[in-house]
């Protein structure tokens, strides 16, 4: 999927640079309000998406499936899924597009696990909500309330949106049987690329974007992988790696401390000395003396 999606439009959320990147499209037949880059073409996005059909009928097409939806039904479309929404006659629907962070409460929150279970499962692309089953009726009721909220915004609009989205996510997460996923393998493969990149480029001015780019993922995904695998951040790992390389050079060579600091990526010897002492308990010079005497 990741290779295939590169051939299709990455539809960027129109409100991505705002403090509330929640995009609601009101679609009537062939018109979308507001007009969205991904409308009526095969596209994908890093955001999550729900659709609720107000009247008529539509089809949601992915690279693998076609789902037909009637009025009063809804659908969830996972991030990075290539898709296209097509009407099959007169239709009116709302599309709700938002980032996963809306559902996570806070960075490193335990709630994030219940979000990642779905969004990181590449086998789970979409889910069609239909009438007849109690929990799906509740989910559709929440989608309907999100639509009604757009017509009747109050001073609490932002908070009401977040409450409805998290309630909808909770119902879905409790009741959907997720297909087996290969999360550990995916994370492991990404981590191999991250760590190899650090090993090859640690003396350089590496940024989070550089490390994430080595595995072609976002900065937030890079942070998630490091936290999941090593319980640390890329920056902390990079610093530890640089200091371990510096310790080797101090033990095995007679290079000046200033040269070693520069060799492992520190521009200021004072910063190097401070970080090295915090890690080992000794200044670089004292560490060298102790190691050579041993």
Explain this structure.
It is a single chain. It is elongated, with a radius of gyration of 25 Å. Strand 2 and strand 3 form a beta hairpin. Helix 3 packs antiparallel against helix 4 and helix 5 packs across helix 7 (219-230). It starts with a helix and ends with a helix. With 294 residues, it is an alpha+beta fold. The mean pLDDT is 90. The protein contains 11 helices and 9 strands. It folds into 3 domains: 2-175, Jelly Rolls (Sandwich); 183-231; 237-293, Orthogonal Bundle (Arc Repressor Mutant, subunit A). The strands form 2 sheets. Strands 2, 3, 5, 6, 7, 8 and 9 form a 7-stranded antiparallel sheet that branches. Strands 1-4 form a two-stranded parallel ribbon. The protein is 46% helix and 19% strand.
Give the structure's gist in a few sentences.
The protein is of the alpha+beta class and 294 residues long. It is built from eleven helices and nine strands. It has helices at 2-5, 112-119, 134-151, 157-175, 183-201, 208-213, 219-230, 234-252, 257-263, 269-280, 284-293, and strands at 9-10, 23-28, 31-33, 43-44, 48-62, 66-70, 74-77, 83-98, 126-129.
């Amino acid at each position: 999927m990741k290779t295939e999606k590169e051939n299709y439009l990455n539809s960027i959320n129109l409100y991505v640079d705002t403090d509330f990147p929640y995009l609601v499209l009101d679609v009537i037949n062939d018109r979308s309000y507001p007009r969205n880059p991904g409308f009526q073409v095969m596209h994908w996005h890093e955001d999550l998406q729900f659709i609720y059909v107000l009247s008529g009928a539509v089809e949601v097409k992915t690279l693998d499936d076609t789902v037909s939806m009637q009025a009063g039904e809804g659908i969830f479309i996972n991030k990075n899924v290539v898709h296209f929404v097509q009407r099959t006659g007169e239709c009116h629907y709302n599309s709700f597009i938002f980032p996963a962070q809306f559902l996570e409460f806070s960075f490193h929150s335990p709630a994030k696990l219940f979000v990642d279970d779905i969004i990181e499962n590449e086998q789970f692309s979409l889910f069609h909500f239909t009438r007849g089953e109690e929990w799906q009726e509740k989910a559709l009721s929440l989608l309907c309330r999100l639509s009604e909220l757009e017509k009747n915004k109050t001073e609490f609009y932002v908070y009401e949106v977040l409450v409805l989205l998290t309630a909808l996510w909770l119902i879905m997460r409790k009741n959907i049987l997720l297909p087996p996923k290969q999360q550990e393998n995916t994370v492991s493969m990404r981590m191999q690329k991250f760590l190899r990149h650090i090993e090859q480029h640690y003396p350089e001015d590496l940024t989070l974007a550089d490390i994430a780019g080595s595995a072609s993922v976002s900065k937030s995904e890079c942070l998630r992988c490091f936290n999941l695998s090593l319980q640390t951040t890329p920056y902390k790992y990079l610093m530890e790696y640089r200091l371990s390389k510096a310790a080797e050079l101090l033990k095995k060579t007679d290079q000046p401390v200033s040269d070693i600091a520069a060799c492992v990526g520190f521009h200021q010897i004072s910063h190097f000395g401070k970080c090295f002492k915090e890690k080992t308990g000794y200044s670089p010079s004292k560490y060298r003396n102790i190691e050579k005497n041993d």
